[in-house]
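forwarding from the other thread:

> can someone predict this with iron/sulfur cluster?

sure thing
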Amino acid sequence: YGKLPLVQLVPVEEMTFPLWEFEAKRFLEYAKELGIDPKIRPYRGVLDLQSNTFIVFNYHMNSKSCPLLKTDGKCSIYGKERAFVCNLFPLNRSPFLHVDSPLDKSIFGNCGGLETIPEKLDYKDNDKLVGQLYHSFGHTFLAAVQHDLVMEWSNKLILELMKAKKIRPAINYPRDKLLRRIQNTRQVDLFEFLVEIGHFTQQEADATIERFRNYEDAKERVKQVTGSL
Ligand code: SF4
């Protein structure tokens, strides 16, 4: 997965509705209350040879349409705390995610209701674009930014854990062998693992998740650029 030892268990084209592990836990509870199978499966993680653990960073709902979508087209959990992927639509990503492709209209997904907004934005001036997106999309934009910042945080975390020799990820394994090994290895969610190895106390893990859920990093980063929220 890029230059990081992250293993994607499902090909991108088959992956639907990605959830961070702390979001997946919430979705499992919602689904239990509703009596449905949310088809939540591990999607991305790191195979740590040191602890013989597959550390799950993300899950996805393995279904063509979201299992929480009702037959009348409404969301069963609309009034509840949903996931970044639910809240960031119609954005695909924010200008804070560093990828190889240039910033352009592709930061938006397909949405007929967008009309001419994507054409009117200034993709050449990053700071101006952040302001325009925040003023046009508000909370939706914060969801996209927070999602990208959690991604950035998790990427740095992997490097930090490797440097401190707290994990020894499987690298350069043939993919078939790697997937077979993951199937036969215990799986532990990321935050649980961080507490298990003493990288975080339980309180630090809970506080970090809370920070992500409240979009605190996104608010701070957008405020740094726009001067106010
Ligand atoms: S908004 Fe509701 S129906 Fe849509 S993806 Fe999220 S949980 Fe599923």
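The longest strand covers residues 40-48. thats all i got for now
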